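Figure 3 (text version): structure tokens given as input.
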């Protein structure tokens, strides 16, 4: 593998004069501790910010870290926060996020974030300290086999026992995390490897046998895909998060406008194609729009771009899009035909493949869009008859959909919106309009509660000029709200909107619909009783944030505007909303997309024929 991408480091200025070297004499080799080599490697890779928490096995690295000012370290309050912050940093920029932890429980606290990054293809570098190499395997204090633990949830996990191996390992980890299908890579470094010294060699020699990501697709497959597009009467672009990871939104827009084919964007792809575009049908899936869900279901050609046919999109896989041929584009060959057999499998980078498809389409069809007027007539009918909507609750409390919609409208498309997991996540995906990639951050595959606050924090560090919202639930917020302290101390003024329905809302919705309304252990007592446990406004104040409580619709705009005007500290708004509100539309788990349910109170009758 070429190492041209790694620049040669500059030498440190010596502390005392040294004899001048002769012109032919080689430069003095730089001798660094393993920890110093980690730090220097990160600097040379362009890393500017890291998130972490020190402990015994990573102390040598932290001792080095305080001697420099090129890399900003954000001290989190929990290692899971470091992992999610690194994810938010990466997802909002496309850069590699870096999280650091000590051995044992420090490392295991990163596992949830690592698994989350693995599911959602987020480029993450996790660096952990390990006990002394001679103590490994003895159940030493704070020893855990983090390499073994993370093998199923990383692209690769490294164990470093020698300081001379540090530069090549860090460089290789960064390369693996950021190329091909992005994902997390873990580097575990023993304490003696951090303390001992070795010659620092850069660029390092990187040896990754078998790791050869394919970015350029086979020309015959591209031509076959273009031919299927030319023959299709009911085609759909099924766009997944891979389009965002590949920075392929501009290419997608050009191809969609040339062909005239409708577009749906999955939960992970929100913003990959502008919501305002007339060809966009919305989000498909369990809580997708009716036009998006039925467009996939009734299509005769699915052009899947960076999507993996997740069960939340397909419903019962055996019944998914039964009449459609499939063109499946993915950079990961393991995803091709994993769920649905592809008629035309295309392995390659979405940015390159979409550009090639545009050229092939021009060769096969020309510059005119496809003649699919009848298909569009059907889809326009769905859009007219089944718009996204919600009903006002009858318990006197606010509609959460209204709150989230106003956050999006008052903030605008240049904001960044990080969501927790549950009902508020789905409403944020539905009712905020996304016009650009990297504006929407969420935990899609793993569904990790507690993601929003630290992810928003990471995004704000990466892009301090943008407004960054954490749209959270009262359940999710209680899992990682300690990172508000991190935000206050480090001048990271995120905005937090707690959609407080005093319950674990999505579980409660399922209990209402499928368990005869037996709400077993889902009431959290955070917002609708005379005693709030905890009081989120008091909590915000204790953390040095601005705390606001909103209980009436007429108070919503003023609170959001105050939050947008407040940039000297974090803001927490406790929106007290109705627990009766449900996420609609809905495809029940294990059913066909054809059985999509629309909220009865605002659904028109339609002919299922």
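Below: residues designed for each position.
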């Amino acid at each position: 593998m070429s190492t041209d991408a790694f620049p040669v480091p500059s030498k440190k200025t010596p502390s005392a004069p040294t004899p001048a070297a002769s012109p032919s004499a080689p430069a003095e080799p730089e001798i660094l501790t393993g920890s110093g080599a980690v730090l220097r490697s990160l600097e040379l890779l362009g890393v500017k910010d890291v998130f972490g928490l020190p402990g015994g096995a990573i102390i040598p690295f932290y001792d080095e870290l305080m001697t420099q000012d090129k890399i900003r370290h954000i001290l989190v309050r929990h290692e899971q926060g470091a992992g999610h912050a690194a994810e938010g940093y990466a997802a909002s920029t496309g850069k590699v996020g870096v999280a650091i932890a000590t051995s044992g429980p420090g490392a295991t606290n990163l596992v949830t974030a690592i698994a989350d990054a693995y599911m959602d293809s987020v480029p993450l570098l996790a660096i952990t300290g390990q006990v002394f190499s001679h103590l490994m395997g003895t159940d030493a204090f704070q020893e855990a086999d983090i390499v073994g633990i993370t093998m199923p949830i990383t692209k690769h996990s490294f164990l470093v026992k020698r300081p001379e191996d540090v530069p090549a390992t860090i460089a290789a980890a960064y390369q693996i995390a950021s190329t091909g299908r992005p994902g997390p890579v873990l580097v575990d470094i023993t304490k003696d490897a951090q303390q001992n010294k070795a010659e620092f060699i850069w660029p390092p020699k990187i040896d990754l046998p078998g790791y050869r990501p394919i970015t350029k697709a086979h020309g015959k497959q591209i031509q076959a895909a273009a031919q299927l597009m030319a023959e299709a009467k009911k085609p759909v672009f099924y766009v997944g998060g891979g389009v965002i990871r590949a920075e392929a939104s501009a290419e997608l827009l050009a191809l969609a406008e040339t062909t005239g084919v409708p577009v749906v964007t999955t939960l992970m792809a929100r913003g990959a194609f502008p919501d305002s575009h007339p060809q966009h049908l919305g989000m498909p899936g369990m809580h997708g729009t009716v036009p998006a869900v039925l467009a996939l279901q009734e299509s005769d050609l699915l052009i899947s771009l960076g999507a993996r046919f997740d069960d939340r999109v397909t419903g019962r896989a055996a019944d998914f899009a039964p009449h459609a041929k499939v063109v499946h584009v993915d950079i990961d060959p393991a995803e091709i035909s994993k769920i649905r057999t592809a008629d035309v499998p295309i392995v390659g980078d979405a940015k390159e493949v979409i550009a090639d498809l545009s050229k092939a389409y021009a060769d096969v069809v020309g510059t005119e869009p496809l003649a699919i007027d009848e298909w569009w007539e059907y889809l326009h009918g769905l859009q007219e008859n089944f718009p996204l909507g919600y009903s006002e609750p009858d318990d006197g409390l606010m509609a959460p959909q209204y709150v989230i919609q106003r956050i999006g409208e008052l903030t605008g498309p240049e904001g960044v919106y990080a969501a927790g997991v549950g009902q508020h996540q789905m409403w944020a995906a539905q009712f905020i309009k996304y016009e650009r990639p990297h504006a929407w951050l969420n935990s899609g595959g793993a569904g990790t509660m507690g993601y929003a606050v630290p992810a928003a924090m990471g995004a704000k560090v990466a892009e301090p000029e943008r407004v960054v919202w954490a749209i959270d639930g009262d359940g999710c917020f209680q899992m990682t709200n300690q990172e508000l302290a991190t935000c206050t101390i480090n001048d990271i003024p995120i905005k937090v909107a707690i959609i407080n329905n005093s319950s674990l809302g999505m579980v409660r919705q399922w209990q209402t619909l499928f368990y005869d309304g037996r709400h077993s252990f889902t009431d959290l007592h955070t917002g609708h009783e005379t005693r709030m446990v905890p009081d989120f406004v008091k909590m915000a104040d204790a953390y040095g944030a601005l705390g606001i409580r909103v209980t009436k619709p007429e108070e919503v705009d003023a609170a959001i505007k105050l939050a947008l005007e407040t940039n000297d500290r974090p803001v927490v708004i406790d929106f007290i909303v109705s627990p009766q509100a449900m996420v609609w539309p809905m495809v029940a788990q294990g059913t066909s997309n054809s059985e999509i349910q629309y909220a009865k109170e605002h659904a028109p009758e339609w002919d299922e024929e």
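Residues 30-200 form a domain with the Rossmann fold fold (CATH 3.40.50.970).
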